[in-house]
């Protein structure tokens, strides 16, 4: 029996997706070979690539002004590629957690960075409101922010309103809730949370923004050249894209992003209620800024952490340890996590509190 996997990434995939991939592993569409073994320029794979792009465009209701790229290097590569393309004067950033810090530090190697606001003084337990930001530099090229911080479990309840290009790292929340993609000039997301296995990063870029891009030394990491080559300047991560297409198909079968948003709200609400109704567990994030994807929680007695993790693991509840930088526990509730998994977790938590509280 499959366990309930609460890992923050690489994360669980829908069971039906894994079953289809298993069935097609040795013989894809009666071709006699695996999709992993075919040419990335042949009809079999190019049809998969086209399908993945079309499904993602439908799921996110992307405007025609925006293009989709499948790139390598994960979101971490984008931390450097974004300023190397678009930083001419000043790059503006919101510091809301550990992934924001990594993006900011990477950008500093390419030019001047303005941190408009930070919640570091409160251990990243809230999202700074736009009213609290410093004044934006007159020569700011773009604003970068992280709508959902995986490690701290902080979610921005608003989309910034700015008159410069808006760039967002949606790695841990893409496809989990509806967004107005037209408000963003650049969206990127590592696949290994809500899209598929590690190995590919999705980039959604407004074509107009590319007109301001600096040419890159390597065509593999040049957005314009990758767009012109349909994400195939070099051999793309074909199997990761194939699995992403299966996940996109699964999402459409569930009713799309709006349907997943309702389910995700139920899952998060159920877990937060279990935490808030208890004197034994605590969530450190401001109520208005709690993530629906990543739920950290702390036990009243941290001496019980190891016991909690050992017993939850034995109960089939996997990967509940908090990130090494913050400790405690963390349950990631990505799209593939069923409501039954959250129910099993909350039942275990209540039983654990009865026995140790």
Describe this structure in words.
It is built from ten helices and 14 strands. The strands form four sheets. It has a seven-stranded mixed β-sheet. Helices cover 36% and strands 17% of the residues. The chain has two domains: 15-253, Aspartate Aminotransferase, domain 2, CATH 3.40.640.10; 255-356, Alpha-Beta Complex (Aspartate Aminotransferase, domain 1), CATH 3.90.1150. It starts with a strand and ends with a helix. Residues 4-345 form the Aminotransferase class V domain. The modification N6-(pyridoxal phosphate)lysine is found at residue 193.
Compose a concise summary of this entry.
This protein is an alpha/beta fold.
For this entry, give a set of tags:
357 residues; globular; alpha/beta; Aspartate Aminotransferase, domain 2; seven-stranded mixed beta sheet; 2 domains
Strand order of the largest sheet: 2-10-9-8-5-3-4
Number of domains: 2
The CATH H-level homologous superfamily of the largest domain: Type I PLP-dependent aspartate aminotransferase-like (Major domain)
Low-confidence sequence ranges: none
Tell me the name of the CATH class of the largest domain.
Alpha Beta
Per DSSP, what share of the residues sits in E-state strands of 2 or more residues?
A: 15-25%
CATH topology value of the largest domain: Aspartate Aminotransferase, domain 2
Q: What coarse outline follows from CA principal-axis ratios? A: globular
Rg calc: 21 Å
Level of helix content?
Answer: 25-40%
Function: Catalyzes the reversible conversion of 3-phosphohydroxypyruvate to phosphoserine and of 3-hydroxy-2-oxo-4-phosphonooxybutanoate to phosphohydroxythreonine.
GO cellular component, one term: cytoplasm
Pathway: Cofactor biosynthesis; pyridoxine 5'-phosphate biosynthesis; pyridoxine 5'-phosphate from D-erythrose 4-phosphate: step 3/5; Amino-acid biosynthesis; L-serine biosynthesis; L-serine from 3-phospho-D-glycerate: step 2/3
Keywords: Amino-acid biosynthesis, Aminotransferase, Cytoplasm, Pyridoxal phosphate, Pyridoxine biosynthesis, Serine biosynthesis, Transferase
């Amino acid at each position: 029996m499959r366990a309930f996997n609460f890992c923050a990434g690489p994360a669980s995939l829908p069971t039906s997706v894994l079953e289809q991939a298993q069935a097609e592993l040795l013989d894809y569409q009666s071709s006699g070979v695996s999709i992993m073994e075919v040419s990335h320029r042949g009809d079999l794979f190019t049809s998969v690539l086209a399908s993945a792009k079309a499904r993602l465009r439908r799921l996110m209701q992307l405007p025609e002004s925006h293009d989709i790229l499948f790139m390598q290097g994960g979101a971490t590569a984008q931390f450097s590629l974004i300023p190397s393309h678009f930083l001419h004067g000043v790059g503006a950033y919101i510091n809301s957690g550990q992934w924001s810090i990594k993006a900011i530090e990477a950008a500093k190697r390419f030019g001047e960075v303005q941190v408009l606001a930070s919640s570091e003084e409160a251990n990243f337990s809230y999202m700074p409101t736009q009213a609290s930001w410093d004044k934006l530099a007159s020569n700011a090229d773009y604003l970068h922010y992280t709508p959902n911080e995986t490690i701290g479990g902080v979610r921005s309840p608003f989309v910034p309103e700015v008159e410069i290009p808006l760039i967002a790292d949606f790695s841990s929340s893409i496809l989990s809730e509806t967004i107005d993609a037209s408000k963003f000039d650049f969206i990127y997301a590592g696949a290994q949370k809500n899209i598929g296995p590690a190995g590919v990063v999705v980039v959604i870029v407004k074509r107009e923004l590319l007109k301001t891009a600096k040419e890159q030394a390597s065509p593999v990491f040049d957005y314009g050249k990758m767009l012109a080559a349909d994400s195939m300047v070099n051999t793309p991560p074909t199997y990761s894209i194939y699995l992403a297409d299966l996940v996109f198909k699964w999402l459409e079968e569930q009713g799309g992003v709006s349907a997943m948003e309702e389910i995700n709200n139920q899952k998060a609400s159920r877990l937060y209620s279990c935490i808030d109704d208890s004197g034994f567990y605590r969530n450190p994030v401001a109520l208005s800024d709690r993530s629906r994807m990543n739920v950290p929680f702390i036990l009243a007695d941290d001496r019980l952490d190891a016991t909690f993790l050992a017993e939850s693991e034995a109960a089939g509840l996997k990967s509940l340890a908090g990130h090494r930088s913050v400790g405690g526990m963390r349950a990631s509730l990505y799209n593939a996590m069923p409501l039954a998994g959250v129910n099993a977790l909350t039942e275990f938590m209540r039983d654990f509190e009865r026995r140790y509280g």
